[in-house]
Amino acid sequence: MHDAHVEKLRIKGQVREVILQRCERLSRLELGGRLEVVKVGGRGVHRVKLPKVFPSLISLTLDSPRSSHLDTLWAVLEACPQIKHIQIHSQFEGKQKKLVIRNKPCLQVVRLMCAGGGKSNVTEIKIEGCQRLEEIGIDEFSSLKRFKVAKKCESLKNLFIRGLSKHFRGLWIDSVANLQSFECFMKTDIPCRAILDNYEDQFVFSFGGPIPALRYFKFAVDFETGYPNKVAMKWKRGQTPVYFKNQF
Question: Nearest to residue 229, comparing CAs of 244, 219, 213?
């Protein structure tokens, strides 16, 4: 379904997969029944309602950049024990400052992209107890200070954290034995020289051991003051690391 003039939609019964594209007038969506896969694209989708127990849902993709779906994410984590894939593009506005994804043994992919200029109150993200989790993508959470992947996430292969702001101070990844790709893009109001002179007092980047499977690594910093204003390092297995200054 696409370009529909529907404002409210309820989907239940025996339907297993729903794909809604460019549904710009859709404001409320209620899901239930035996749905397994849901893909929704609509700037005006303000509310997604789920049953309190929703064991059939395994994949949710929601692209609604004009709305906040932090509550939707909480609902999915509470109601969907079999969820494997979560991808949400929204504003993530709400009172909650700490986002915890815990004890989801089926979860494999988490991609959270903050729209609206990254205006979210979330200052901390913690993920633990997700034994099958292979990929994490976090984009444009401007208030984020700390990010941690804790115990029992040994399957993690790909980690991408982009759009970190000057508030960011720490990253902890406990399980890195299978990590293959890592990207981190951040901004800071601390000059490069001040970081080099006293790095440990400014940031914490902690990896829980050797990373033998690593194939790709990119780390980039955009400095709001001082010189240089940009530095980055890019590396691929089998190649010499490439360093950039004032460019990417």
Answer: 244
Spatial distance between the Cα atoms of 111 and 109, rounded to a whole number of angstroms = 7
CA distances from 229 to 162, 213, 225, 239, 244 (A): 17, 32, 7, 26, 11
For the chain, strand residue ranges (E) read 8-11, 17-20, 28-31, 37-41, 47-49, 59-63, 85-90, 98-102, 109-114, 124-128, 135-139, 146-149, 158-164, 170-173, 181-188, 204-207, 216-223, 230-236, 242-245
Token look-up 């004009």 returns: 66
Please state the domain extents for the chain. Answer: 8-245
**Helix (H) or strand (E) run with residue 72 in it:** helix 70-79
pTM for this model (two decimals)? 0.91
Question: Residue 35 is which amino acid?
Answer: L
Residue written as token pair 């200052």: 123
**pLDDT tens over the chain, length 248 residues:** 555 567 888 888 899 999 988 777 888 889 999 999 999 987 778 888 899 999 999 999 999 888 888 888 999 999 999 999 999 999 888 888 999 999 999 999 999 999 877 678 899 999 999 999 999 999 999 899 999 999 899 999 999 999 998 889 899 999 899 999 999 999 988 887 777 776 666 788 999 999 999 999 999 999 888 778 888 999 999 888 787 776 54
Look up tokens 């976090």; give the residue: 138
Q: How many residues does the chain have?
A: 248
